[in-house]
Amino acid sequence: MKIITIDGNNLILEDVVKVARENYKVELSEEARERVLKSRKIVDSIVENNKVVYGITTGFGKFSDVTISQDDCKTLQRNLILSHACGYGNNLSKEIVRAIMLLRANALSKGYSGIRLETLETLIEMLNKRVHPCIPEKGSLGASGDLAPLSHMVLPMIGEGEAEFEGRVLNGKEAMNEAGIQIIELTAKEGLALINGTQVMTAVGALALYDSINLLKISDIAAALTMEALRGIEDAFYSEIHRIRPHAGQINTAENILSLTEGSSFITKQGELRVQDAYTLRCIPQVHGASKDAVNYVKEKHSIEMNSATDNPIIISEDIVISGGNFHGQPMALAFDFLGIAVAELANISERRLERLINYQLNDLPAFLVKKGGLNSGFMITQYAAAALVSENKILAHPASVDSIPSSANQEDHVSMGTIAARKSLDIVKNVKRVLATEIMAACQAIDFRDNLNLGKGTMEAYKVVRQNIDFIEEDKVMYKELDKCTELINNGSILEAVERKVNLKY
């Protein structure tokens, strides 16, 4: 059985993807169980001794000065979930919901939230039995955590809301019953513990980040294919030029291009056909490399966030219960804005390489890469579609983190908009996949117009995968279907896996 053990400290990005996309099961470590039990004893003591502690024996937000009696603690926590579940828009995908549930469980397992063990185990049981709450994508400010969407996550746990189970959307109570999971009654601190965290933005960002890392490699493969199709100059990738400007991403990209094109007779040397290439070929290491460095920065910050306690108040001991601001999503808001900008640039330069492939004024190939131009349009409008996606990305890349709207009667007067930043970055990633797929397909088409030349050891593998699935475009056909095929070769990892059997690509 495929199982991920969580303890609040050691979750990695690949674990999130396994649970989200491959339905790995989840279990708590014994150490985590002990920490959760210890933290819960502190909450019970606070309630029994009528201490005034935010979120446990008080209201929330601006109502923090309203003391709640011991008898009303359960009502307080239930009302919190009901009132805060006010999201809007399309529901988040199943894989994002699974990532959210995993990340919230991991944060709670650190033992600083005061949740009961049985409540945490209910959340994990839902994940393992694939009861997926319906969570609207919009409604989070990204400070005081992802309150609205996480409340929707909790609704089925208390028999409310809706959830998807075995392919059907059911009301929360029915979904839990059919899965054989007991509905719970929230007690002191538990509602707040479940929803006051950054797990929605972190989950959306996790999948965007994972796909971005793969796109960094795909972008190098696409660029190398275009380099060969246009008979690019390899000198600009020699290590001598990059070690004197030693950005890691730049160095790695240059090495990747040389490795991918090793043994190629398409590639030329400086002065052989021309003295220098246009920037979109010559500056591939500098542009792709900068995106690699940015994505690696995001990965570092994301790794910290996945294994952090991000709720409020934080329970350290019976005498130390601190109302702080770990729920504020600013570290992730900035990171995901950066991620979106970095990945958008991969499409920006890719689309310009696509233009060089199809524009007969910029190469020695048939116009729009088709034999009977005029009667056929070939790849003409693929560039239009790619340009539209690139332009959309420029709008999406506007940072969300520079915005803030005060909430809760100005008690919560600065918020991060981190969940919007994460959602935008994921949209950008999807657009970039299509642009890179278009470049790859056009580059393979261009390559087929050249005779008696050999591809490099890495590019040959990419070319073979494409040609096994997509034919040379002899005459116009329904183009989106061909582009869909190439996009799927990126989505399912076929191109990357084939290339990496021959070349160790760095990012």
From TrEMBL:
<feature type="cross-link" description="5-imidazolinone (Ala-Gly)">
    <location>
        <begin position="143"/>
        <end position="145"/>
    </location>
</feature>
<protein>
    <recommendedName>
        <fullName>Histidine ammonia-lyase</fullName>
        <ecNumber>4.3.1.3</ecNumber>
    </recommendedName>
</protein>
<dbReference type="InterPro" id="IPR005921">
    <property type="entry name" value="HutH"/>
</dbReference>
<keyword id="KW-0369">Histidine metabolism</keyword>
<comment type="similarity">
    <text>Belongs to the PAL/histidase family.</text>
</comment>
<dbReference type="GO" id="GO:0004397">
    <property type="term" value="F:histidine ammonia-lyase activity"/>
</dbReference>
<feature type="modified residue" description="2,3-didehydroalanine (Ser)">
    <location>
        <position position="144"/>
    </location>
</feature>
<dbReference type="InterPro" id="IPR008948">
    <property type="entry name" value="L-Aspartase-like"/>
</dbReference>
<dbReference type="Pfam" id="PF00221">
    <property type="entry name" value="Lyase_aromatic"/>
</dbReference>
<dbReference type="InterPro" id="IPR022313">
    <property type="entry name" value="Phe/His_NH3-lyase_AS"/>
</dbReference>
<keyword id="KW-0963">Cytoplasm</keyword>
<dbReference type="InterPro" id="IPR024083">
    <property type="entry name" value="Fumarase/histidase_N"/>
</dbReference>
<comment type="pathway">
    <text>Amino-acid degradation; L-histidine degradation into L-glutamate; N-formimidoyl-L-glutamate from L-histidine: step 1/3.</text>
</comment>
<keyword id="KW-0456">Lyase</keyword>
<dbReference type="InterPro" id="IPR001106">
    <property type="entry name" value="Aromatic_Lyase"/>
</dbReference>
